[in-house]
Amino acid sequence: MKIFLAQQNYHIGNFEKNLEKIIDAIEVAKSKNADLIVFSEMSICGYPARDFLDFKDFVDRCFDSIEKIKQHADTIGVIVGSPDRNPAREGKDLFNAAFFLYEKEIKSIAHKTCLPNYDVFDEYRYFEPAYNWNTINFKGKRIALTICEDIWNLGDNPLYRICPMDILMKQQPDVMINISASPFDYTHDEDRKATIKSNVVKYKIPLIYCNAVGSQTEIIFDGASLVFDKDANLCCQLPQFKEELKEIILKDDGTIDSPVIEPAAAVPGQLLEPLHFNPELNISQVYGAIILGIKDYFSKMGFTKAIIGSSGGIDSAVTIALACEALGKENVRAILMPSEYSTSHSIKDAEKLSKNLGNPYDIIPIKKIYNQFLEELKPVFKGLPFSVAEENIQARTRGNLLMAIANKFGYILLNTSNKSELSVGYGTLYGDMAGGISVLGDCYKLQIYELAKYINLKKEIIPENIITKAPSAELRPDQKDSDSLPPYEILDKILYQYIERVQGPGEIKALGFDVKLVDRILKMVNRNEYKRNQFCPIIRISPKAFGTGRRLPIVANYLD
């Protein structure tokens, strides 16, 4: 059987564009005499559609698209993802569904059974789980069709009570097909392979896995669709972060007519769950994910140009370099805003960076504006000593200038805050925390240094002095990050345990970290939830990012 995998980048709610992509791929597959073409989860409307699913019109347009696709599913089977209505009075109004189209008809509909309701997922908010399961008979093959999470309910502690494949296996399927919208994180490539391998080992039939690609605000879908033969050999893997239309041949004996990429023995057998923080882990994938995140955020929002505050520090330097790669150097405008506390080398480093990259930049000193603020505040401040108030005035002055230029020229401001700073509140609301999207907000400081090294692999783009000098906010004389924070080599490790691994204070202390330091850091994280709650969307690259996937109360007293 000749099967095409359509790994495509969809735009949520852009039915016309999504429909065009899907039909074009069907016609290509038909021209190659394909039997079947497979698209990803919720391909009709894009994933996650979230509360758009509450609109009757939105769901109606999904069905309108299916009606149009049916006309092209004449000589070829088509599997597409879309919401489906629940005819029963009981339960949610919709299913997360996979439609099987053939001979210009809807031949079968499979509903998703395992509805994730953790991290960035919120599917129980919208969907009813499946309550019947049937294989699809097509051209002499029985197809077990599942959707994303349906194949993840394995292991010693399954999350769901029902495993749909266990039920479908009673009907003796010949092949598993899973359509997915599985988000990227820097551990997930290995996780997927391990999970799919586990399914194949358990059920002893091949598995064809089609994943979405593209960025949807903060969530990155990396594609990397997979095909495993009945012996759990990896026979096909589509690229990460790119659209691809790939032909495979499924043979009658359950093998794939292509060379084996990774034999079963070489495929990971268990999920990648690092016990300790490794800033180098899959850094090339992190780079690719962020590039895609920037590209899609701008293109899907209808913007082309970015503005960034350039301080001469590592965070802004990496952000500018990533933005230039994603958008083109001519579309990235850097603004240098030195104050009386800015060092000469920071200004020179920032200028050198933009000259290396070739992006436009401007220098707008803030000393006069800052001093005018202080002058107007004299009657209120009444001679009180210099404090965080004066520091934050500088940061907010810069934020105001950046937003003014962004508004005037139609730019999106890229935020440069990192995960380490956001964790402990080392940032100024409405100042350096301003932005349309956060590029590095899910990258710890040590990961940013690794990104800088990766960017500089072929030639020096980020000046060496930016990488080697001690980080500083430069908001007071001789300021260093280390004045307020522990060394990042320690801070990032503790934060990783608390945020990614969800370890409590006792468990973290047992790893050998200083007791008082652990207590201090965890209190800082919790006390600054109010800041993160007002922050812009963050491009997600880790298993646990700030944003929709981490929901903590603001006024709690835990660890305080």
Structural features, described:
There is one protein chain. The chain contains 16 helices and 19 strands. With 560 residues, it is an alpha/beta fold. The chain folds into two domains: 2-265, Carbon-nitrogen hydrolase (Nitrilase/N-carbamoyl-D-aminoacid amidohydrolase), CATH 3.60.110; 283-482, HUPs (Rossmann fold, 3-Layer(aba) Sandwich), CATH 3.40.50.620. The strands form four sheets. The chain has a six-stranded mixed sheet with strand order 5-4-3-2-1-14, covered by helices on one side. Helix 1 packs parallel to helix 2 (56-70), helix 5 crosses helix 6 (314-327) and helix 8 packs across helix 9. The longest helix is centred in the C-terminal third of the chain and has 22 residues, at 388-409. It is elongated, with a radius of gyration of 26 Å. The model has no long low-confidence stretch (mean pLDDT 96).
